[in-house]
Amino acid sequence: MTYLRSGIFLAPFHALNENPLLSLERDMELLQHLDALNYHEAWIGEHHSGGFEIISSPEVFIAAAAERTKHIRLGTGVVSLPYHNPFIAADRMVQLDYQTRGRAMFGVGPGSLVHDAKKIGIAPADQRRMMNESLDVIMDLLAGKSVTRKTDWFDLCDAALQLPPYTQPRMEMAVAAARSPAGALAAGRHGLGMLSIGGTSDDALAHHRQNWALYADTCQANGHTPDRKSWRLVTLMHIAETREKARENVRHGLDKFCDYFRDVATFPIVPGDITDRYQYMVDSGSACIGTPDDAIAFIERLQKGSGGFGVIMELAQNWADFAETKRHYELMARYVHPHFQASREWRNQSYDYARDHHDEFTGQSSAAVQAEIDRQAAQKRAAE
After folding, report:
1. Residue stretches of the chain with pLDDT short of 50
2. How many Å apart are CA 130 and CA 151, to the nearest integer?
3. Residues 13 and 316 sit within 8 Å (Cβ to Cβ)
4. How far apart are the first and last CA of the chain?
5. What pLDDT is stored for residue 1 in this prediction?
6. 110 in helix, strand or coil?
7. What is the pLDDT of residue 194?
8. Rounded Cα distance, 85 and 82, in Å
9. CB crowding 297-335: b at 16 or more within 10 Å, else e
10. In 10 A of CB 278, how many CB atoms?
11. I want to staple 219 with a disulfide (CB 3.0 to 4.6 A). Which of 117, 167, 224, 342 is the partner?
12. Cα Rg, the chain, nearest whole Å
């Protein structure tokens, strides 16, 4: 079995009736919790409107999170490249690479919320072109090149970074890939990882397979080797000790989450005519709401349906209250991740060997004890 790393995609999603300050504090506390649970990575989103996704600068959030955590890797999920000058975006990420001593990852994309782009005068039709123009520059800058390039939205003259990346040859990078092929093409052209965020229904998995094939072909055409270990698949999950408890837990925030995607975000998670959202998400394969065993079966389905990937990314969603949310991640770390990381097999083998030879070893131990008793008795008799 391929070792499967674990991570979250923290947009985040916070209901409108919540205190925003406390919501951000819980996001930070969540990363500390995941760090202690040995989650491998977390990707932090960039959004500027809509009211639910309230982190505007993933870099600022990551800088603070890096001071409060020890091991977990922290990525921008993603920097919306059309919103930033590429020279400044690259320079800031190199600084973050230093401040985190190599734990930072650079995720990029075109920007997912149309109303974000509209607020700064960017036409949605231009976002993917702009992402590619920016990414070309960023890759050159991270390679130590000087860039002179002018487009309709940036003008660089002998732009060069003053610090080399802390991580050599550069920090890990990934491109968001949803419904459009633009992300797969951009990632393949530069040999970067891919963050697939378009759902996990059977239809979505078919689309992910197509995107992977496009990505792999593009990688090879540009002299790169595609590696499924750098492919991250994002899905929705909440588990508890029983299915009934999991379903009860998500009553806290599932409807608010679905309302946001129906009313504000780019595409709905659940069709508008569905009344039982829980049942739809479970039946369609869009989410796992159940037990650790259900989560294992769900992830195995995703592996089979996609052809294999390197990181299972949970979309952090606040369906349950915070205590039950933290419990979900604990159950994932204790009982689900080990199944995909081969961390229990040697223990099981050791236990099985000892069990299968128990009678033999017990007999040998008893014989050794009795031999010592007999020896001591013989010495005592000889001394009398």
Report:
1. none
2. 9
3. yes
4. 66
5. 63
6. coil
7. 97
8. 8
9. ebbeebbebbeebbbbbbbbbbbbeeebbbbbbebbbeb
10. 19
11. 224
12. 26
- What are the distances in angstroms from CA 48 to CA 28, 77, 118, 380? 19, 14, 11, 88
pLDDT at 383: 86
Q: Looking up tokens 């802390």, which residue turns up?
A: 166
Output the pLDDT for position 268.
Answer: 87
101 and 71 in contact (C-beta within 8 Å)?
no
Cα separation, 242 vs 383, in Å, equals 68
Cβ neighbours for 79, distance < 8 A, ≥ 6 positions apart: 46, 58, 59, 89, 93, 106, 107, 108, 109
Q: What is the rounded CA–CA span in Å between residue 345 and residue 77?
A: 33
In sign, the C-alpha dihedral spanning 11, 136, 174, 99 is negative
Token pair in block for residue 115: 């109303």
Provide the token pair at 123.
């036409």
Place of tokens 């979250």: 8
Exposed, middle or buried: residue 153 (CB in 10 Å: 0-12, 13-18, 19+)? middle
What phi and psi values does residue 195 have, to the nearest 5 degrees? Answer: -105, 105
Instruction: Classify domain 5-346 by CATH number.
Output: 3.20.20.30
Instruction: Choose among 171, 173, 31: nearest CA to 101.
Output: 171
For residue 122, the number of C-alpha atoms closer than 13 Å in the C-beta half-sphere is: 23
Residues 6+ apart with CB under 8 A from 201: 284, 285, 286
Tokens 């837990």 -> residue:
249
Q: Where are the domains of the chain?
A: 5-346, 349-383
Rounded Cα–Cα distance for residues 318 and 337 (Å): 21
pLDDT value of residue 340:
97
Tokens of 344: 């229990």
Q: How far apart are CA 236 and CA 160, in angstroms?
A: 40
Cβ atoms < 10 Å from Cβ of 240: 21
pLDDT at position 266: 81
State the Cα–Cα distance between residues 69 and 39, nearest whole angstrom. 11
pLDDT score for 384: 79
Which of 285, 254, 343, 340 minimizes the C-alpha distance to 7?
340
What is the distance between the alpha carbons of residues 318 and 218, in angstroms, rounded to a whole number?
Answer: 37
Q: Distance between CA 281 and CA 270 in Å, rounded?
A: 7
| C-alpha–C-alpha distance, residues 100 and 63, integer Å | 7
246 token code pair: 């999991």
